[in-house]
Amino acid sequence: MKGSKLSKTLLASGLAVSLLLVLPFVAATQAEQYPSKPIRWIVPYSPGGGFDVYSRAVARYLPKYLPGKKKVDVIIQTVTGAGGTVGVTKVYNSKPDGHTVGIMNTIGVCAATVLGEAGLKVAALKFDVRELTFLGVITENIYCLCVGKDSPYKSVKDLQNAKEVKFPTTGVGSSEWSHTVLVADEMGIKARHVAGYSGSTPSRLSVVAGDTDAIMATVGSAWAQIQAGDLTPIFYIKPAKEYFPEAPDRPTVQELGYPNLAKFCGFWRHVIAPPGLPEDRAKILEDALWNVIQDPEFRAWAEKTHKPIIFPAKAKEAKETVVELIDTLKQRANVFKAAIEH
Amino acid sequence: MSEVVAAILPALSIFADGLTWVFFLLGFVMGLVFGAIPGLSGAVALALLIPVSWGMEPRQGMVMFAGVMGAVAFGGAIPAILLNVPGTAPNVATCFDGYPLSQKGKAGVALGAAATASCLGATFGILWLVILIPAVRLIIMKVGPPETFVLILFGLFAIALFVRGNTLKGVCAGGLGLLLAFVGFDPVTGALRYNFGTMYLYDGIRPIPVIIGVFAISEAINLSIKGEAVAQVEISSKASDVIEGVRSVFRHRMTLLRSSAIGTGIGIIPGVGGTVACIMSWIAAAQSSPRKAFFGSGEVEGVIASEAANDAKDGGALLPTIAFGIPGSAEMAVLLGAFILHGLVPGPDLLSPGGLPLVWCLILSLFFSNILVSSAGLLMARHLAKLTMIRGNVIAPVIFCVCLLGAYSIHLSIYDAMLALIFGFVGYLMTKYGFSRVTLVLGLVLGTKAERNFHLSLMMSDVGGWIFLTRPIALVFVLVLVAVVLIPILRRLKRGRL
Which residues from A are below 8 Å from B348, CB to CB? Predict the structure, then answer.
């Protein structure tokens, strides 16, 4: 009796020891596989907003294009706060093993960085945004300047001749505000900022209602109002016809003679990862993302919901956009400073 | 109109599928549980269910989402009444009278009234919704920052109305609330105020952890110090209590109608929210009741006012979401995202014959969910009421844990949990020394909105401060406000002279 019990114990401990010896190897082979566990996709903005919706749509198709027999999930995690900087910082501080990625409002984050340096106490990142690993751009949106239905302003000239034009924005330092400041400066429009609306929808509605005069909005977000005739574009930053065939014929800033505006007026949705992500994994993610963007089902969804995929980009181009954006914004730091002190 | 009605049939057909009911129940249970746990709200439940809705037929997805929304508000009322813990922020006014009723051993009455008022409030909310459809565009266009500001001013004046006992202390607490509201980044001027160098305070002091702290945690402290049960008298766990609660709703028909109208109306205006709706409705009920003096010390009418309003607001908030893609509340913002992910575009598309069945699905399941949650509530009320008999030092640790977890889970931030804890002690001291916690919360919730809309009004105005009198709707609001303030004073003067 006693003997058999002993041998059982021995057998058990022998098994345990051998298992312990083998485990590291199992773990090692697993580590070489990528992805080995679910990928966390951080969204720094509220659920239901554009960044959340695009993220969820991409996350739905991404597993299809990731290597490995066993498909891993892509899980959305919402980390809001301080205009998105909390979420972007979380991505920055994550382990660069390819299991954490995120999405970023590029113009918002870059403008905050430059505004921070210009002396405005906005929530700027505590690190250089260019250090992040960029995996691509899902879409860029085209900005346009819109006025209300019965607005007396019909052209850029009208706006330039106006004594004062009221522009609604979500607040000082927001991407709407930055674009308004830059456009007003470049074109010589005397803008009065009505800053502090609780979102871009209420600020657009204030133009529709006639409380304010004109707004810098993306064609995509204002599409319902443009289609209904409640908002009328005056000009586009980049040609919009290709993506919105029904959009009214209006000139682009290039045609109006302000080509600089096309450089920094944009609304990019960059996909980011922590700095130091190994190149092979970055490549896997970049390719998978690119494949999702080309995926017919994903495209069909985008088409159906009037969310056209505009100028998507791969990793290299995505990084160049950010570098160039920061440079051009920095050159205009004085313009921002003047607008804040005004 | 006939198109609208004709769309009911295809909407009903989805309910013939057993699977629809499974999804409905899933949403319903999630809503009830997430409503009952402070911090977790309907918006969180919806966000978690979005991935689950992949692969479902869009109509079934909507049924599930409506299941959540219908159940959340009553789910939140249960802990509000029994433990003074508002399950969601819009249940805060339910605490005012619901908890004192529990202390008097009448939890059954309060629960019965809350369940009935929730269900009828939601029903009236949906009716108001149908009546208001033609006016929606007008409301959204004409109610700008000046009108919103005057509306919020009503709420701020209510701070004075709220005060019971020591007026000075009540107003002080309201002022502290206002001061707290000014912490954080000011989008109007671009200034960062009182953040003490931390990124956490950039977004300001969030109201939900504060509400959890001053109401729930302070109550837990109080219970653990006293060691007694919530109910200070022996409760009668008889069904007659619950029936008494149901009857009380029918006695206060006017309150029910008025509260559901307030709830729907405020629901339509984007960015005001259910918390303001329930507080305003509670105030309106208190002001127009002959038993005004008893409000806040266990008047069942107060529970009815709050619960009818916070359930009716779903109907109101749904309207701008469907018609214009403008979310009327936090939950609706998430729902809007779900719409788009399912390839549905709010606006004319959804209101076309092709989209209408889906809208009916939402409305019908919202209705079913409310009926179900109220029936369940009525059946459970008698047993739930027994919770108030548990000794304080047994139940307090449970409240502590749930509250801290709830506060943490809103933004997965440990600072939120710490904030709740700090305000727990603040709230305890406030009750001990007779300062009103309600006015503190009112100041905090309304302060930010008041400031923002005031600045926006002045910035858009060409006539300076006169903008509040030159816009017709704002002028009407101002006149009503002046009347509300002056009439009691005039009445008193007249009585004094006679």
Answer: 228
Domain A143-264 fold is D-Maltodextrin-Binding Protein; domain 2 (3.40.190)
What distance in Å separates the CA atoms of residue B339 and residue A305, rounded to the nearest whole number? 9
- Distance of CA B328 to CAs A201, B145, B250, B264, Å? 11, 15, 29, 10
Set of chain B residues whose Cβ sits within 8 Å of the Cβ of A305: 340, 343-345
Q: Which of B52, B451, B460, B473 to mutate to test the interface with A (most CBs of A within 10 A)?
A: B460
φ, ψ dihedrals at A141, nearest 5°: -110, 155
In chain B, % of residues over pLDDT 70: 96
Domain ranges of chain A: 34-141+267-332, 143-264
The type of residue at B83 is L
Residue B307 identity: E
Question: Using CA atoms, how far apart are residues A178 and A216, in angstroms rounded to an integer?
Answer: 10
User: Do the chains contact at A53 and B333, CB–CB below 8 Å?
Assistant: no
Residue-level pLDDT at A89: 92
- What does the domain layout of chain B look like in residue ranges? 2-230+237-460
* Maximal C-alpha separation, chain A: 104
Q: Are A304 and B343 a contacting pair at CB < 8 A?
A: yes
Neighbours of A294 (CB within 10 A): 12
pLDDT digits over B153-192, tens only?
887 887 676 666 677 888 899 899 999 999 988 888 778 8
Class of domain A34-141+267-332: alpha beta
The interface predicted TM-score of the complex, written ipTM, equals: 0.83
- The tens digit of pLDDT for each residue in B384-402 reads 888 888 888 888 998 899 8
